[in-house]
UniProtKB/TrEMBL annotation:
<dbReference type="InterPro" id="IPR007837">
    <property type="entry name" value="DinB"/>
</dbReference>
<protein>
    <submittedName>
        <fullName>Diguanylate cyclase</fullName>
    </submittedName>
</protein>
<comment type="similarity">
    <text>Belongs to the DinB family.</text>
</comment>
<keyword id="KW-0479">Metal-binding</keyword>
<dbReference type="InterPro" id="IPR034660">
    <property type="entry name" value="DinB/YfiT-like"/>
</dbReference>
<dbReference type="Pfam" id="PF05163">
    <property type="entry name" value="DinB"/>
</dbReference>
């Protein structure tokens, strides 16, 4: 996959993460406190994993000791953090050559075990990982009488990829 396709997928992720957080903000905290909290925990988990792979691609230590943080950020905080993170990916991937994407990067998992993946595989993992967990968030939104956003690439390409 070339970096143009990856950048489109990253822009899709930026859009759907923001749309998902917008819907979460509309879920009543008093009526659905536990489920709303779980939605934010899942979105924060997505963010933490995004940051871990950002560090891996950059060749830095990520500093995380778990796949989520002890504290749960607000939807507003997550909106800013997730947007900043994905904008970093868009900028970084836009400047990567095919050779950069194929480069194998060694890293440490949160549990301390060693791993290695290409930069492209890391980016794909980050993209698919977020999609998986947003699906669970969408289910929770439905259980709270909300309408989950259309988490599909076709809608993004039709309506938002200008």
């Amino acid at each position: 996959m070339d970096n143009t396709s990856l950048v489109t997928l990253l822009k899709f992720k930026r859009w759907i993460d923001a749309e998902t957080l917008k819907v979460i903000k509309g879920i009543s905290e008093s009526a659905y406190a536990e489920k709303r909290h779980l939605m934010l925990r899942l979105m924060n988990h997505i963010y933490v994993v995004d940051m871990i792979f950002r560090a891996n691609i950059s060749g830095h230590k990520h500093g995380y000791t778990a796949l989520n943080t002890p504290e749960t950020p607000s939807a507003d905080e997550l909106e800013v953090k997730m947007n900043d993170c994905i904008n970093w990916y868009i900028q970084r991937v836009s400047s990567m050559s095919p050779a950069d994407l194929k480069e194998t990067i060694k890293f440490s998992f949160v549990d301390g075990s060693e791993g290695e993946m290409t930069a492209a595989d890391m980016i794909n993992h980050m993209l698919f990982h977020g999609s998986y967990h947003r699906g669970a968030v969408g289910w929770l939104i439905s259980e709270c009488k909300g309408t989950p956003p259309k988490d599909v690439l076709t809608v993004f390409l039709r309506d938002h990829n200008h």
